[in-house]
Amino acid sequence: MEDKVTSPEKAEEAKLKARYPHLGQKPGGQKYFDSGDYNMAKAKMKNKQLPTAIPDKTEVTGDHIPTPQDLPQQKPSLVASKLAG
Amino acid sequence: MRKLFAFLSVFPTLKDLMWEIDWSDIISTVEFNHSGELLATGDKGGRVVIFQQEQENKIQSHSRGEYNVYSTFQSHEPEFDYLKSLEIEEKINKIRWLPQKNAAQFLLSTNDKTIKLWKISERDKRPEGYNLKEEDGRYRDPTTVTTLRVPVFRPMDLMVEASPRRIFANAHTYHINSISINSDYETYLSADDLRINLWHLEITDRSFNIVDIKPANMEELTEVITAAEFHPNSCNTFVYSSSKGTIRLCDMRASALCDRHSKLFEEPEDPSNRSFFSEIISSISDVKFSHSGRYMMTRDYLSVKIWDLNMENRPVETYQVHEYLRSKLCSLYENDCIFDKFECCWNGSDSVVMTGSYNNFFRMFDRNTKRDITLEASRENNKPRTVLKPRKVCASGKRKKDEISVDSLDFNKKILHTAWHPKENIIAVATTNNLYIFQDKVN
């Protein structure tokens, strides 16, 4: 007998799969332009699935070549917290 | 005994709320000290604000001391890691107080990479009557000095000073998520995604690595450390939680490197119920020992679980925080809310636990009566001593009057950080950028 009652979680999973068919798939199941494309896609997927895991940026140093615009402004730390009134 | 919580104060106290929320104002941690007299908050801007409870007026016993701003300082500044081309955020991830040993107060504050020990001390006297200096600090010509006097200390307006006493740096490759002071009051641990280090409070140039879960090949990485805490009484015992919903208890007497756990706490999962979201929502965002040391509490996305340290195979109590979100996981994944890290806390007697939710709601569970309540932190209940009205979320179907439907919840209004006074029924609840303090109404 077919079980017609789906858990709410499984129903949500079906919704997600409908919107993002390639989510969770191993990179081999998809066509990539070259190895760079493959690695980027793999890194992006890992990032989403392991939320507290190492973000891409600590691994892919070469992607982040700083330009003057990227460098953070050293904010003056003179602004007091609003909680302090 | 029914507990009714009433509004006490909210910070900032300004009535005009028209400013936009500055990113740096976002509160990132809240912590009472051991006596409950002091309450510290940290924010994304790297600042710490400490509130102090007014000394109780013994005559008016029904009014407990209110909290006022005591001290504020810049704990961490933004930094730049030139080797990795990465910004190091100044956001304060955690604050932990040391027990008070003398007149000064000490706390540890940490951002993603560096832990600092701060000394907060009061100055209410200053020396006056120097021979070689005028009162305003200008130097006197020594040839004009004809008599000598002994400088004396005279009272002055209270000044609270914060000074960094130790800086514990360069020990973490990944982002620090937890710090925990040992019950020996000499050492503490710091944990990042993959490693846990043990420090001595006096020694800044070295620390011992006690847990390392980094795989030889990073491609095999499947699990990260999400929180860690020392046992409140046993100085050799600590626990750490993972993104897969497990908690490991380690005994430092067993070996120098505690990669092999002494106990593994994990609730078995029904494999037929497994979905894409199962692992994500099982990730533990906070772990806290009870004051007694017999139990520990974990917070995952939808629930709070109480574990008996003597039983590893399942929690002894489970409380649903917002089960109605289970049928919204798809959109919560899309807007990243599914990755929100909620904290949890015990009351002083370990009889009630509290945690936050969305729409500025927070929840309390009474372990003895098994009753729970949902309250809201909002400026609408602004008058002092106003009792908070219980809230209810309507999951589906007919919405009763005063109920809020799941679809009208504001997922940007999250209460991630809450704290309970160690001795009294006073709670601190942080919304995005406001700190609320509630106390129970003494009938």
Automatic annotation (TrEMBL), chain A:
Signal peptide start-end: none
InterPro entries attached to this UniProt entry: Endosulphine
The keyword Cell division appears for this protein: yes
GO terms for biological process, alphabetical: cell division
Keyword Magnesium belongs to the record: no
Region named Disordered: 1-31, 52-85
Cellular compartments annotated: Cytoplasm
Record key words, sorted: Cell cycle, Cell division, Cytoplasm, Mitosis, Phosphoprotein, Protein phosphatase inhibitor
Bias-annotated ranges (Basic and acidic residues): 1-16
Membership in a protein family: Belongs to the endosulfine family.
Purpose of the protein: Protein phosphatase inhibitor that specifically inhibits protein phosphatase 2A (PP2A) during mitosis.
Name the UniProt record assigns to this protein: cAMP-regulated phosphoprotein 19
Organism from which the protein derives: Muntiacus reevesi
TrEMBL record, chain B:
Superkingdom, taxonomy of origin: Eukaryota
Keyword Repeat applies: yes
Entries under PROSITE patterns matching the protein: PR55_1, PR55_2
UniProt keyword annotation of Repeat present: yes
Keywords of this entry: Repeat, WD repeat
Recorded GO CC terms: protein phosphatase type 2A complex
Any one GO molecular-function label of the UniProt entry: protein phosphatase regulator activity
Family: Belongs to the phosphatase 2A regulatory subunit B family.
The protein's name in its UniProt record: Serine/threonine-protein phosphatase 2A 55 kDa regulatory subunit B
Lineage, top ranks: Eukaryota, Metazoa, Chordata, Craniata, Vertebrata
